Amino acid sequence: MDKTIQLNLRLKDLLQNWDPFHMGTDFYDTEIADCIQAVHQFDDANSLAKKIQKIYEFSFEEKIALAECLNISWKLLQIKNDSSCELN
Q1: Angle between helices 66-87 and 29-41 (to 10 degrees)
Q2: Is the pLDDT of residue 87 over 60?
Q3: Whole-prediction pTM value?
């Protein structure tokens, strides 16, 4: 399987399990896709956290605490960085 696909699946699993609004793990497909795209665009946890916060706020008209978004962004970037080490 392609390394990018593997990375995206790992990111998707983490984001599905996050479930910030407690609506069920299969409820966030659009937001997860947007967040995965953002992970590929950002290397800075703060910038990624702000983007994640905006993605979910746009969909749900409710803001997730930036600290919570920062926590998930660190985890997402760790997966991304681990994956990039495997690619070399």
Answers
A1: 60
A2: no
A3: 0.92
